[in-house]
Amino acid sequence: MNQPDKQTDLLRAKLNQETSQIAWKELQRYYAAGMVIAVSDDLDLVDVAASVANDDTAAVSKWMSEARVSKVSDVQAEAWLDADAALWAVVVKPWILVQMRAS
């Protein structure tokens, strides 16, 4: 295993341990500050977080162009608030990446 792969594995393990469920209402102030990023449920939240942390512009740009990674919209924020939703979240400063997993 070469060094970058080991570093990526360590980063993924760290991010995985820091990922947890949180009520959307607890994220309102971060959403208001424009710091919350929605990740499509067809992507692995930890993989996306690792790509953001590693400044993998190609991967993140591709997901953004496909609308699979984007800032949370007002409509989505309101729907999550109305539903009292709990989302999976992980912090990659300054961002908070969130994902509503399909049931």
Protein model, in words:
With 103 residues, this protein is an alpha+beta fold. The chain has one domain (3-99). It is 47% helix and 22% strand. It is built from 5 helices and 5 strands. It has helices at 3-18, 28-32, 45-53, 57-65, 74-82; strands at 20-23, 36-39, 69-71, 86-92, 95-99. It has a 5-stranded mixed beta sheet. Helix 1 (3-18) crosses helix 3. The protein is globular, with a radius of gyration of 14 Å. It starts with a helix and ends with a strand.
Query: Which regions have little confidence, pLDDT < 50, spanning 5+ residues?
Result: none
Percent strand: 15-25%
Residue-averaged pLDDT: 93
Q: What is the number of helical segments per DSSP (H or I, 4+ residues)?
A: 5
Percentage of residues in helical conformation: 40-55%
Q: Assembly type of the shown chains? A: single chain
End-to-end gap:
36 Å
Structural class: alpha+beta
Q: Strand-and-helix sequence, N→C?
A: HEHEHHEHEE
Attribute tags:
103 residues; alpha+beta; 5 helices; 47% helix
Topology:
Elements: H1 3-18, E1 20-23, H2 28-32, E2 36-39, H3 45-53, H4 57-65, E3 69-71, H5 74-82, E4 86-92, E5 95-99
Parallel strand pairs: 2-5
Antiparallel strand pairs: 1-4, 2-3, 4-5
Question: Summarize this, please?
Answer:
This protein has helices at residues 3-18, 28-32, 45-53, 57-65, 74-82, and strands at 20-23, 36-39, 69-71, 86-92, 95-99. β4 and β5 (95-99) form a beta hairpin. It has five helices and five strands, in the order αβαβααβαββ.
